[in-house]
Design goal:
It is a single chain. By secondary structure, the protein is mostly helical. About 75% of the residues lie in helices and about 0% in strands. The protein contains 14 helices and no strands. Helix 7 packs across helix 13, helix 10 packs across helix 12 and helix 11 packs antiparallel against helix 12. The longest helix has about 55 residues.
Length: about 425
């Protein structure tokens, strides 16, 4: 649940109703796959350098102020909550190549503008870098999915293509923290921000080699606004009329609040609990990322044996225990054990959510239900991030992590009524 600008994994929900994929040797020769994969790699590199450079810079300049640290995450994730449905809707109406190139160029422009202000001492503008690129990503990423759907055969898209993007995100969760920390500690904040700007420019250059966009079939003038409102209402109505989706939405909200409370405070686990420098956080995240890669393979073999609600509840229960353990532990080895367990079972959560979502959503509603569900999670996560620093100051780091664990536990308990029936068909209550 990280790196907001690279949500091709989340967007893949909309394609998962297709038939099972067959490996295709021609996939890597597809121009659109090549361009979008290269663009995604460049953006991942820029995002991870940005994330860790800004985190370490803000902790340096504010002397580890938890309020400012949590504000970084708010700037990164708030746009996902606000613009996810809007961005997807407009991306369907705009030309995808033009949208992606334009968003990358605007992101680069905003990065270099902020770099200019940093050179003259206005350090608070650092939050603007994350905010602008996160907003623009909500328009560019649905456009990438639109291009893949249009130019890659559906039997190739489901497994091979989407697996590549998921794997890329997982790889950067392992190496990204180390790369970001190295660039910041070796070259400083100005070079780190410049690296991000150049990555956006290179991404725009890569995408510019794609064939010209096809002309839209319909200009869509006056009907655009009513259509958007109607789609939004239909999506909410569809979710709240179905018991399984209502339950999943409640679990989403509780899990989002738990993540929002604990994620911004991870740096204080390293400094306060373990007595290490804040750069130690990179090793903790690398261990968790490696465990996620391993856990994905393990969970794949369990999906046919364990019903999705039980699989999801199992992941949430482990997260509840591990979150409380991470907040309590003052031992480096024990903290790493909790981080690795958390990473291993994260795939249970991801697989359980995706399976329940797809089994209980009609094909024609997949996009709209996704547009309703993601803001549920992100909205609560942003709320948690907004109050995490204040709660830590008024209570304690351990108390906040225990609250996060209790929220994960509550999300698991919500799923208990679904254990007997499993996942209902889309038309069932």
């Amino acid at each position: 649940m990280n790196t907001s600008e690279s949500h091709l994994g989340a967007q893949s929900l909309a394609t998962s109703k297709e038939t099972a994929a067959k490996p295709a040797g021609s996939l890597f020769r597809n121009r659109h796959v090549q361009a979008i994969l290269t663009s995604n790699l460049l953006l991942q590199l820029g995002i991870w350098v940005r994330n860790f450079a800004i985190l370490l810079y803000v902790t340096d300049i504010t002397h580890n102020n938890p309020g400012y640290v949590s504000l970084i995450s708010v700037a990164e994730y708030a746009p996902i909550f606000i613009f996810s449905f809007i961005g997807g809707t407009f991306a369907d109406r705009w030309r995808p190549k033009r949208t992606m190139v334009g968003c990358d160029l605007l992101s680069a422009l905003s990065v270099f503008a902020v770099l200019f202000t940093l050179l003259f001492g206005s350090w608070q503008m650092i939050f603007f870098v994350t905010l602008v690129s996160a907003i623009l990503s909500q328009f560019s990423m649905p456009s990438a999915m639109k291009l893949l759907k249009r130019h890659v055969p559906q039997e190739q898209l489901l497994q091979p293509a989407m697996a590549m993007f998921q794997t890329l995100v997982g790889i950067f969760m392992v190496i990204g923290p180390a790369v970001g920390t190295y660039v910041y500690q070796s070259f400083g904040i100005h070079v780190s921000i410049a690296v991000m700007g150049f990555m956006f420019l290179l991404s725009a250059l890569t995408l510019s080699f794609l064939p010209k966009d096809e002309a839209p079939a319909d200009a869509g003038g006056a009907a655009a606004n009513p259509s958007f409102v109607h789609e939004l209402q239909e999506g909410f109505r569809y979710v709240f009329e179905r018991k399984v989706l209502r339950t999943l939405g409640g679990t989403f909200a509780l899990a989002g609040l738990a993540v929002g409370l604990t994620q911004p405070l991870m740096v204080f686990v390293a400094t306060n609990n373990l007595g290490m420098d804040k750069s130690f956080l990179q090793w903790s995240l690398m261990a968790s990322g490696a465990a996620m890669l391993v856990g994905g393979g393990l969970v794949f073999g369990l999906t046919k044996k364990i019903p999705a609600p039980i699989l999801l509840a199992l992941g949430l229960l482990v997260s509840a225990v591990c979150n409380a353990g991470i907040g309590w532990s003052a031992s480096i080895p024990l903290t790493f054990v909790f981080q690795v367990l958390n990473g291993l079972f994260y795939s249970c959560i991801q697989t359980g959510i995706n399976t329940m979502f797809l089994q209980n959503t009609e094909e024609s509603f997949v996009g709209r239900v996704n547009g309703v569900m993601i803001p549920m999670f992100m909205g609560m996560m942003v709320l948690g991030m907004s109050v995490a620093g204040a709660l830590m100051n008024s209570l304690s780091l351990l108390t906040v992590y225990v609250i996060g664990g209790v929220l994960f536990l509550a999300g698991a308990l919500l799923l208990v009524p679904l254990f007997q029936t499993g996942s209902a068909a889309p038309s069932e209550e």
